[in-house]
Structure formats: structure tokens, C-alpha cells
Design goal:
The chain is of the alpha/beta class and 287 residues long. Helices cover 23% and strands 23% of the residues. The strands form two sheets. It has a seven-stranded mixed beta sheet with strand order 6-5-4-3-2-1-13, with helices on one face. The protein has a six-stranded mixed beta sheet with strand order 7-8-9-10-11-12. α6 crosses α7.
Length: 287
């Protein structure tokens, strides 16, 4: 397991052909993703804590290469102020993608508004070869602020011939799968820690169970599925081997990855892909 500057060096030294994508799991729903020369951080959670089962693999000040930093929702293990402020200082070119609800928190932290991309379902941000298309997430509830929109977001990110789906924290809800079927997803990150009354009573808001996550993967059929959000806190965990066993029985034709923190995983380009076909169209923009 690589950590610190060795991990940063591996990300920087990784070279990928068009249509390939690499990722490194940092724990919880935190991932580094590299497509072409772009380095994306999803939900970086780097604050040291005695509650963590997995210590931070990186210090924010080591992250000088970030291009885009995504925060799925304003909980401290997904939008981590310590990580956000450190990355913002170390990576001056990085931009931070959050909901319009969470934008208020980032502004209060002192991030300049020009470095924040504040989105909601139905809004698309395009920058060069990269397109970001948010989808509402139901973190136990499908909440919506009447003025600012959905506080919980999943992200579809299209760049370099690759479509990435980072679910953030979500449960399944009516219409969610039909939204996701607008894209042919290459790489999907999904939570599997589930939910129950005891957790909700103490304020621990829930997600898909491993069975629900498997069925979501079965419906959207990504080239690679990656379960997460099961490792960090002992009182909010799940067994990824149950996810694996259910996948193998129910959807044996689909691939998944369960592995070590800080390990590099490379998904090669898909075969028989029309390289000239856009990764998103006007209908998929949802604007």
C-alpha cells in the first residue's frame, strides 16, 4: 500500500492511453482518479481521527497535482474542510465541484467563488474535454432545498473517452436507474454500508445495502464496479465479500474490484468503442 509522496509520485507517473482510467482508493468514498493528464479527487477525507479504521493515506499539503476536487455532500467524511483547504493551497489550479447547497460552506471556509463549481441536477459544467453532470442522490431521503436544490449529489464525469459514476452517498429511488442509463458507464463507485433504525436514530444517515448496490450495478452494467463506504468506521460498515458473492451469483458477467487502499487499479480502454461518438448528448445534459 503506497502512501504519502510515494502515492503522489505513482499518480503523477501513471501514463494512460485514450479511453483508459486509473484509480486509487483512499478509504470510505474517497478516490483519486486519473484520466489522461487530469487528476480528479472524489470526496477526499483526510482528517486524522481516532475513529478512523484506516489512517489518512495523504496529507492535504502533499496534493499539489489536483485538477478537480468533487464533494458529493456536506458531511465531514465527504466534504472535509481540512482536506479542502489544504488541497486548495497546494493545488492552485484545482477547482472544487459541490452542490449549490454546499457552496455556502466552501465560501465560508474562504475559497474564492471562482474556484467553486456549484451544481445541481439539471445543470452541466463543461471544461474542455471534461463534462460534469450531477444527479440527485437520496442519502436516506431525497431532500431538496427549495432555493438551492439537492444537497446530496452523485456525479457523472465524462472525459478522455471514459464515463465515471461516483454515487456519493445514496439509496435507490424511483427514476434513478433510468437517469443513469443515459450513459454507458465505464467505472462506477457505489456505497454498500446500508442503513437501519439504530444508525438513523443516532444521526447516521444511510445508504444502499450491498444487495441494492449489486442490483444497481446489474441494471447499469458498468465495465467495472467498485464498492465503498464499508471500511472506515466500525459502527457504520458492511462486509464487501457479501457484495462480491452476490455479484458472482447474480451478475457473473460483470466485473468488480475489491482491494487494498492506495493500490493502483487500471481499467484499459473498452474494445469496439466508437472513439468519435460523444460521451454525452443534448438529452443527457439534462439542462
Amino acid at each position: 500500500m503506497k502512501t504519502g509522496r510515494a502515492l503522489i509520485a505513482e499518480v503523477d507517473e501513471t501514463r494512460l492511453p485514450p479511453g483508459a482510467v486509473a484509480f486509487w482508493w483512499l478509504g470510505q468514498m474517497s478516490y483519486i482518479v486519473k484520466v489522461g493528464d487530469l487528476v480528479l479527487y472524489f470526496d477526499p477525507y483526510l482528517t486524522p481521527s481516532a475513529r478512523r479504521n484506516v489512517p489518512p493515506l495523504l496529507r492535504p499539503e502533499e496534493i499539489a497535482h489536483a485538477d478537480w476536487v468533487f464533494g458529493s455532500h456536506d458531511h465531514s467524511d465527504h466534504i472535509d474542510p481540512y482536506a479542502i483547504l489544504g488541497i486548495a493551497q497546494a493545488s492552485p489550479r484545482a477547482r472544487f465541484v459541490v452542490s449549490r447547497v454546499a457552496q455556502q460552506h466552501l465560501l465560508a471556509l474562504g475559497l474564492p467563488p471562482e474556484r467553486i463549481v456549484a451544481l445541481d441536477e439539471g445543470l452541466t459544467h463543461v471544461s474542455g474535454d471534461l463534462a460534469i453532470l450531477p444527479i440527485a442522490a437520496a442519502h436516506e431521503f431525497l431532500d431538496r432545498d427549495p432555493a438551492l436544490g439537492h444537497p446530496y449529489l452523485s456525479y457523472i464525469v465524462c472525459c478522455g473517452g471514459v464515463v465515471i459514476y461516483h454515487a456519493g452517498d445514496t439509496c435507490l429511488y424511483e427514476g434513478m436507474i433510468s437517469k443513469l442509463l443515459r450513459w454507458k458507464i465505464d467505472l462506477a463507485f457505489v456505497p454498500i454500508n446500508g442503513r437501519d433504525a439504530a444508525r438513523l436514530a443516532r444521526g447516521c444517515i444511510g445508504n444502499m445495502t450491498y444487495q441494492e448496490a449489486v442490483d444497481l450495478i446489474g441494471a447499469i452494467a458498468p465495465r467495472l464496479a467498485v464498492p465503498g463506504h464499508y471500511d472506515m468506521f466500525s459502527d457504520n460498515s458492511a462486509d464487501p465479500h457479501l457484495f462480491a458473492a452476490y455479484m458472482e451469483v447474480k451478475y457473473p458477467h460483470l466485473r468488480y474490484w475489491i482491494g487494498e487502499h492506495g493500490a493502483r487499479v487500471v481499467l484499459p480502454p473498452a474494445e469496439n468503442v466508437n472513439k468519435n461518438k460523444p460521451l454525452f448528448d443534448e438529452e443527457a445534459r439534462m439542462e
